[in-house]
UniProtKB/TrEMBL annotation:
<dbReference type="InterPro" id="IPR040690">
    <property type="entry name" value="FtsX_ECD"/>
</dbReference>
<keyword id="KW-1133">Transmembrane helix</keyword>
<comment type="similarity">
    <text>Belongs to the ABC-4 integral membrane protein family. FtsX subfamily.</text>
</comment>
<keyword id="KW-0131">Cell cycle</keyword>
<comment type="subunit">
    <text>Forms a membrane-associated complex with FtsE.</text>
</comment>
<protein>
    <recommendedName>
        <fullName>Cell division protein FtsX</fullName>
    </recommendedName>
</protein>
<feature type="domain" description="ABC3 transporter permease C-terminal">
    <location>
        <begin position="185"/>
        <end position="291"/>
    </location>
</feature>
<keyword id="KW-0132">Cell division</keyword>
<dbReference type="InterPro" id="IPR047929">
    <property type="entry name" value="FtsX_actino"/>
</dbReference>
<keyword id="KW-0812">Transmembrane</keyword>
<keyword id="KW-0472">Membrane</keyword>
<keyword id="KW-1003">Cell membrane</keyword>
<feature type="transmembrane region" description="Helical">
    <location>
        <begin position="180"/>
        <end position="201"/>
    </location>
</feature>
<dbReference type="GO" id="GO:0005886">
    <property type="term" value="C:plasma membrane"/>
</dbReference>
<feature type="transmembrane region" description="Helical">
    <location>
        <begin position="229"/>
        <end position="256"/>
    </location>
</feature>
<dbReference type="InterPro" id="IPR004513">
    <property type="entry name" value="FtsX"/>
</dbReference>
<dbReference type="Pfam" id="PF18075">
    <property type="entry name" value="FtsX_ECD"/>
</dbReference>
Length: 304
């Protein structure tokens, strides 16, 4: 098989069907950008889970004069009750499960609340007496929060015991739903890309049906006839895949590492290393997608 002749046929096919080639490039670009975004989002979810779940604390909230649940009867926890809770945390039963803990007063909780919600209506409505004092506990194993619930839940002066991971689960459920949505859109776009590539190849073959007939008459093999058409689809898809890879790197560089890093300084975010892992995957996926769909299309055409 002469490489020069094959490449010449590929060039002619791309020029003759330029508008369809541009369509393939755009559809491949958009679909694979969605695929890359879904991959990055899943990496981000995994990284955030590892980062935040390892730092999740268990809060042992104590009674205030407004509390009516748990062991509270609208009476604030007394110093003796607070000392009893701390003694339990340091006891031989719980100490092996606890890494560190600290006590937060109502004034400290109010100061933290003001920092977190500065500039909002909530910051103006809340006063220190509404916020409960609490013990913040870091466990050796974050999955063992139930031990604290069992040991401290019935003590006088304890309002509730809450694992921060319960709040994180809702956030990660939302992120997972976003990732699934991106994958679904990407799948639909990939189907459109496959159909468009197949249609482009069949139209290209139809426009050169006289040449194909002559090639058959002189004994050209099916492989020789098929290869230029397959390469046409692969070239167009590779251009779209490369653009998708560039888009993913640009999103990470300018949006994630630029805007989001400043907006979320305490959050671990994906970086260029992850983007550079995704880009080659998109190139390979685009090439395989085009090669398979083009091969099926031209094979069916030659059987007609």
């Amino acid at each position: 098989m002469r490489l020069g002749l094959v490449l010449s046929e590929v060039g002619q096919g791309l020029r003759r069907n330029l508008s369809m080639v541009v369509s393939v490039v755009l559809v491949t670009f958009i679909s694979l950008t969605f695929v890359g975004a879904a991959m990055l989002l899943q990496m981000q979810i995994t990284e955030m889970k590892s980062y935040w779940f390892d730092r999740a604390q268990v809060a042992v909230y104590l009674c205030t004069e407004f509390a009516t649940i748990g062991g509270c009867e609208q009476q604030a926890a007394t110093p003796e009750q607070i000392a009893q809770v701390e003694a339990q945390l340091e006891s031989a039963t719980l100490a092996p499960f606890i890494d560190t803990y600290y006590f937060e007063t109502q004034e400290e909780a109010y100061a933290n609340f003001q920092d977190q919600f500065a500039g909002t209506a909530a910051a103006e409505l809340v006063s220190p007496e509404f916020l409960p004092p609490a013990f913040w506990v870091d466990l050796v194993d974050v999955d063992q929060s139930q031990i604290l619930v069992d040991a401290l839940g019935g003590l006088a002066g304890v309002e509730s015991i809450e694992d921060e991971r319960a709040y994180l689960d809702g956030v990660f459920d939302m992120l997972n739903a976003s990732s699934i949505t991106a994958v679904g859109i990407a799948a639909l776009m990939l189907v459109a890309a496959v159909l468009l590539i197949a249609t482009t190849i069949r139209l290209s073959a139809f426009s050169r049906r006289r040449e194909l007939g002559i090639m058959r008459l002189v004994g050209a093999s099916n492989r020789f006839i098929q290869t230029p058409f397959i390469l046409e689809g692969v070239v167009a898809a590779l251009i779209g895949s490369a653009l998708a890879g560039v888009a993913i790197i640009a999103i990470v560089e300018f949006f994630v590492q630029g805007y989001l890093t400043e907006a979320l300084p305490l959050t671990s975010l994906v970086g260029l290393d992850e983007a550079l892992l995704v880009a080659p995957v998109l190139l390979v996926a685009g090439a395989l997608l085009a090669a398979v769909s083009a091969n099926v299309a031209i094979t069916r055409y030659l059987r007609v």
